[in-house]
Fold:
Amino acid sequence: MIYDFDVIVVGGGHAGIEAAYAAAKMGSKTALITLSIEKIGLMPCNPAIGGVGKGHIVYEISALGGLMPKLCTKTYLQVRMLNTRKGPAVQGLRLQIDKYAYNTLARETLKQMPNLTLIEAGVQEVLTENNAVTGIKTNAGDIHTAPTVILTTGTFLGGRIHVGLENYSGGRRDEQAAPAGLTQCLKDLGLRMGRLKTGTPPRLLRDSLDFSKMEYQEPDVLSSLFEFYPHKVENTRACYITHTNQKTLDVIKRNLDKSPLYSGHITGTAPRYCPSIEDKVSRFPEKAAHHIFVEPEGASHDEIYPNGISTSMPYEVQLEYIRTIKGFENAIIAKAGYAIEYDMVWPDQLTSTLEVKSVPGLFLAGQINGTTGYEEAAGQGLVAGVNAHLKAHNQAPFILDRTESYIGVMIDDLVTLGVDEPYRMFTSRAERRLILRQDNAFLRLTDRAYALGLIEEDLYRDFTAEKNLIYDTLAQLRQKYTQAQLIKMFGEFECDVETLKAHVPQASERALLTIYAEIRYAPYLEREEKEVAKSKQFQELIIPADFDFKSLPGLSTELQQKLAKHKPASIASASLIPGMTPAAISLLIFRIRLYSNQLRVRKTI
Ligand SMILES: Cc1cc2nc3c(=O)[nH]c(=O)nc-3n(C[C@H](O)[C@H](O)[C@H](O)COP(=O)(O)OP(=O)(O)OC[C@H]3O[C@@H](n4cnc5c(N)ncnc54)[C@H](O)[C@@H]3O)c2cc1C
Structure:
């Protein structure tokens, strides 16, 4: 069969952009078919990219030659490094973005991309022969053929928007849902589908807010952002913080019956870690002051995003509770907040390349796989784009392991465990987070990306020089000094950049951080290796059926909950639970052996 394209990407959101960019860059004749070319790369919710865990993904996208970091560096409004009081492994770079500039730059970059054709249409059918993909059909009846199709339909598949007790079909604010028929087509292909929910706060007019009553949020000045090369940060915009209070809570409580979340109108599962203000009030009724980050949506736009109060209450209720908040007393709502329910595919039906197991050639990426967030979508888009290209050219697949990347952790979680609520990335999901740092993302991934043709020659040359400098410096320092001396010289808790720089004046700030992290974490990494070995030794250890996972001192509540939910029968099964670090497994082994001993003693008595 002669195909029109090698790869067809359906959807121009954050997953679709990365998928199309990667496939076209690798040389595939690629089509990006999307409902609106104008709206490629739009951010329907928080105009910010990065953060702890999510920022790690963006660094990895950068190390793999993706587009998101390049767009961020050119369109940010404010820069912050989160978690700076903690070690380098769990810090997260977060950029406030001018969402209009981002969306324009994404669209214009893709328009100029060789091998890539942008098509404005709604896809309503995935075409197959003998259950393998052959192309797609649009709602206008046009057929485009390809051996691989990547669906990245976001919140548009079966999308239903809720504001108060009213609801209507839609993919996002002011946008139509995906053509009816696509969900049925996927069901006909044998896929199990589910329904999830997310929401967004109202947007407020800048001039109607009193910033003098809010707390000013200091931006950071950093010398590099997500990209490999240093970046001079300038012209950052102010963000502010305010809080909800008892009056806000009272308004919300009084009107809970008007929220579709509580009236039974919404049945889809919402993200636990991104709750609406209604959820916060119901779950923590004693807490009055919830943080609201007051963030601009664009440099020359009047709308402000009040981060932390997403809602699906009716407009009048939104206005009433907004005006109880300090600085928002005279706020004018430019756009009401809303919730959206949408169809998704349970991701345990996919392989690690994001291809549907039962439909060769069909790949899925982004929100359709049950994730939430631009970064999670982009990471998956990149992996799907690379693999669709490889499949179309009969080449071996590209799989990211969970020990080498957060993207690998995310995909492994999705395809092995599936999801039961919108999935977002946290550093706690990774077992080996001392290794998966922001600073070493290039060291972990860029060689592999270069081999795939995703990295430009000059960038690879400069990366290789930095890599050699890091390893040579570490070898020389370790030859000259003991571990204790190194820590004393370069800082016990944080890097003494100046002293380290005196040893390696030619190193970039990132390289210095990597050298420091490798030194600082060396004893922990060694201990981790021992714990991994111990957990291997005890893989067969049976966990007694009545073992109480909920009272394990030393283990995080999240891990205790996960264990209680999955009730693993052995250490081998417990090790498969995402987030079970070697240290956690070690502790579990200790507790089980203690418990079994106590049982034995009791029986003897
Ligand atoms: C109201 C709302 C609130 C949100 N809140 C949060 C939040 O609090 N935190 C968070 O992390 N994330 C939030 N998100 C999610 C975030 O927007 C998504 O996770 C991210 O955009 C997903 O990227 P994606 O590429 O999968 O899909 P999207 O960015 O949604 O892009 C989907 C694309 O596919 C196109 N498309 C869909 N179906 C078809 C079709 N059949 N044919 C052609 N084109 C099609 C659309 O036009 C669109 O371009 C929210 C989203 C919405 C809408």
Notes: The mean pLDDT is 91. The two ends are 77 Å apart (CA to CA).
